[in-house]
Amino acid sequence: MIILEKSLAFLKLPQAKTLDLQEHTRKKTYLCLHGGGALALIYSGKARFLLKDALFLEDLREKICAKHQISPSKKYFFLQSPLCSKAKNLLLEKGFIVHAFV
Questions:
Q1: By the 8 A CB rule, do 13 and 38 touch?
Q2: pLDDT tens digit string along 1-22?
Q3: Angle 51-68/85-93 helices, nearest 10 degrees?
Q4: What is the model's pTM?
């Protein structure tokens, strides 16, 4: 997966581990990395990332943090598809650092 490799290269986390999202969602377009006090959520879909997707992502982040009992100091979001401005504003408001690989 190219976006996963780009995300790992950007984060430069020596011991990042991939968290399993199967119990939280059936969507195959989301990945999660955790390590070094950072949580990275990755959207690998090709469709435009909309406001409803941003709301789902925030809910997913809350479920992940509760299940794994983590409190990340930094939250990253990576994607390689078009990003809706309302979704971007919501993610920035929630404290995400957004990176689009286009």
A1: yes
A2: 577 777 777 777 767 788 888 8
A3: 30
A4: 0.88
